[in-house]
Amino acid sequence: MSIALLSVLSASAIAADFDDTARVVRVSPQIEQFNQPHQECHTEYVQSQRQERGIGGSIIGGLAGGLLGNQVGGGSGRTAATAAGAIAGAIVGDRVDNNNQQPSEQAVRQCRNVDNWQSRTNGYAVTYEYNGRTYTSVMPYDPGERVRLRVSLNPRN
């Protein structure tokens, strides 16, 4: 056997691993802030635009009412009947022409994005003392007053 091979075999025979504990000095949670925005929506009801009132029905109704009134009576009664027929026809014609213009409501959906900031702990910075020295390590949990260690001893070359 060569001397190099003998020294490697003897070094691996001396290496030792064992479990031990250390005193925890400080634990600091590692907090992460993150945003989970969401959408808030509501429905509003708005009045639809009302159209301008038309005068065509009044004109046609007034003419038709005047013609009908003119057929009734004679002399000055005919003139009064023509005027009354024209007025009544204009009113009826206006109502027929503009009756379909009822105001209506329309549903409008309004949405907006709202920030939703949250915090979560994604680990713990653990400071501990072992064998007279201070170490810090990030762990996924809070170890409490003592932390378990895996100690590995290897000789120096």
UniProtKB/TrEMBL annotation:
Leader sequence residues: 1-15
Family annotation (InterPro entries): Bact_OM_lipoprot/Surf_antigen, Gly_zipper_2TM_dom
UniProt superkingdom: Bacteria
Segments forming domain Glycine zipper 2TM: 56-96
Primary localization class, coarse: membrane
Subcellular location: Membrane
Keywords attached to this entry: Membrane, Signal
NCBIfam families from the UniProt entry: PRK11280.1
Descriptive protein name: Glycine zipper 2TM domain-containing protein
Upper taxonomic lineage: Bacteria, Pseudomonadati, Pseudomonadota, Betaproteobacteria, Burkholderiales
